[in-house]
Specification:
Blueprint: H1 2-20, E1 34-37, E2 41-42, H2 49-64, E3 68-69, E4 76-92, E5 98-113, E6 118-133, H3 150-170
Parallel strand pairs: 1-3, 1-4, 2-4
Antiparallel strand pairs: 4-5, 5-6
Helix pairs in contact: 2-3
Length: about 170
């Protein structure tokens, strides 16, 4: 009986030990180990967007730790263009004053496999949106949208873009 219990205990320990190294990430392109982020073109009047995209994408890739960033001769290249930037009223308060705004940024993004000389993923007309409150208006109730700024909305859109780029480059679903 003690031998059966010992065998059972060892089996459980080995099983648990094997699960310790499990990763929830899968690698769609295991040969890609390095990435180069090209300078983004800008067709909008928001001159700061390309620099913000490169900064946030670099931070995202470094924190993800699956790819190394290279200045040149990388396995993969990320390139893109900010096609347009639009800000429009999203909702009005009871006095017909703008209460919320929606920022929409359109991108053209391409991920190239430099080893296989092929396109991994591209979207020539990606549109991402974020809503933010008008800081000049006080919220009418506590359930109203938090008064984010236009810069906060831009940051939210760029974070979403970086997530999309990373998931389409190294994850397989």
């Amino acid at each position: 009986m003690k031998k059966l219990f010992l065998i059972f205990l060892i089996s459980i320990i080995l099983c648990l030990y094997g699960c310790v190294h499990y990763s929830f990430y899968s690698r769609a392109n295991p040969h890609l180990k390095t990435v180069m982020i090209s300078e983004f073109e800008n067709n909008s009047e928001q001159y700061e967007l390309p620099e913000l995209i490169i900064t946030y994408l670099t931070e995202k890739i470094i924190s993800d730790n699956r790819l190394k960033i290279m200045a040149d001769n990388a396995d993969m290249e990320v390139s893109g263009t900010v096609l347009s930037y639009n800000k429009a009223v999203f909702s009005y308060d009871v006095r017909e004053n703008p209460q919320e705004w929606q920022t929409t940024i359109r991108f053209s993004i391409e991920l190239k496999d430099m080893i296989k000389n092929s396109t991994i993923w591209q979207n020539k007309n990606m549109s991402l949106k974020a809503v933010y409150g008008n800081p000049e208006n006080e919220p009418e109730t506590e359930s109203d949208v938090e008064n984010l700024t236009e810069e906060d909305a831009q940051r939210e859109i760029i974070y979403d873009l970086c997530d999309i780029i990373l998931s389409n480059s190294v994850e397989q679903w």
